[in-house]
Amino acid sequence: MPAGEAFTSRQAQQLQHAVDAARDETGLHFSVYVGRSIGDVRVHAQKLHAALGDDAAVGVLVFVEPDARRVEIVTGETAQRRLSDRAAGLASLSMATSFAGGDLAGGIVNGLRMMSQAAVRPPILHIQENSNDPF
Amino acid sequence: MPVITSDLPRHHVIALTGRQPARSRRPQSRLVRLAAFVAGTLVSVMGTVLLAAGPAAATVLAIGEKGNPGGKLPWQETLAIYLGIPVAVAAIIAFLVVLPSMVSGPRYRPGRPWLGGASWFGAPAGGEAAAEAITVLPPATANGGGASARW
Lengths: 135, 151
Known about the structure:
The complex is a heterodimer.
Chain A: H1 9-26, E1 29-34, H2 41-50, E2 59-65, E3 70-75, H3 79-82, H4 85-100, H5 104-119
Parallel strand pairs in A: 1-2
Antiparallel strand pairs in A: 2-3
Helix pairs in contact in A: 1-5, 4-5
Chain B: H1 10-17, H2 30-66, H3 75-104, E1 119-121, H4 127-133, H5 139-142, E2 145-150
């Protein structure tokens, strides 16, 4: 079978939608790369993350390497404060479980959803602590 | 006296009774139409088979009456019937099985090599060229964190 598109157009649409939704919900710059790694997987993932340029600080890059069967999540300097390594690890494990079942697109969409839920802006409950006005 | 409306044109019926006449044909559901189509196809196929088999049955009877078992089947025909038809059926079934995956393209299977190309969702303007050009990681990436997993 010749090398072709990795995802069907419907899957690609779902993935793009998931990336956009995660960006809108969190304000972080989510990005998903699926493909082969040149050299070490982690180093390659970090290079891809650095390629986000000005957005790298708030960037979250998900690198899926199907040949090496590895998934790497790289969070930027600012993004890490919102998306802890623990939350990223949980999402990566969830994705790996889906990938082991052969479901790349579904795993990525679920992983993005988990990360955006973990990184969503905390609601501001008390703006004016000493105000008499309840609203 | 009830008005017999079945043979009258529609606008006469409305004028006489002041009501809309009931429609004779109810809208058929998709399921009913599908069932009708399947039944029609089956009947026509069976009919064709029976028509084709009619003369053959008559020949067999005639041979039986005369006590003549008939001529030997030529080896080409024997081969075609006992080898050609089963192989053709198997090939058709195999084709039908493979067809969906041929249409949908390569799919990832764990343990098999990755056949698809690279895709980047939410890619930066520079794309992969920008990633390859990087030799030293900027602090925004180097001071960040992350996680990894394998499957």
